[in-house]
């Protein structure tokens, strides 16, 4: 039995999408970002920082989405260049890049959505993080000028690592500024496995607005 600890619209979407691409069934256990349950000892025993996702598989629980993605590709021998393959370094780079970008999205989620009261927000930090996110989106957009997928050899689990980012980043950046990234998002979200994951995982539980403008000082 494989069990994914999940919150709709969060990084666990990366894992759910990859499980669907690999044809692996899983049991889903839903959690909440706001009810304090991620700090419960039973959850922290699986994910010590109290973060989603965690994956129960092969008699243990694995935390950190990048580690889970690599574990699953190695276990199944699919959707990743093997060690020694010329594309291996690039695969690992994109796994790390996706998490760098996700951390900026997370900071913006905190500023725009979770931090209360509004007076506690820092407009300079919101501007800075929006600019830092734009740098990562522009880098992806440049890369995707001549790539349909992150790796030249085709779809891989590195694309799944962007599975939470490609939806969330356009809450803070205008789609029109990133035509290649927008087209990539549309290609990836049209994949049957992505659609199955979205249907199973439930609709995003984080955003109440389509777009969040940086407030004025
Ligand atoms: N590097 C971790 C980050 C996990 C993470 O921060 N997940 C968010 C949801 S997308 C979370 O659980 N946040 C709860 C919190 O920050 O308390 C990973 O990739 O698994």
UniProtKB/TrEMBL annotation:
Q: Where is the GST N-terminal domain?
A: 1-80
Please give the SUPFAM superfamilies that the UniProt record associates with this protein.
Answer: GST C-terminal domain-like, Thioredoxin-like
A molecular function (GO) held by this record is:
transferase activity
Q: Which domain of life is it from?
A: Bacteria
Q: Which Pfam families match?
A: GST_C (PF00043), GST_N_3 (PF13417)
Keyword terms of this UniProt record: Transferase
In this chain the GST C-terminal domain maps to 84-211
Q: Tell me which PANTHER family the record gives.
A: GLUTATHIONE S-TRANSFERASE GSTA, GLUTATHIONE S-TRANSFERASE-RELATED
Q: What is this protein called?
A: Glutathione S-transferase
High-level lineage: Bacteria, Pseudomonadati, Pseudomonadota, Alphaproteobacteria, Rhodobacterales
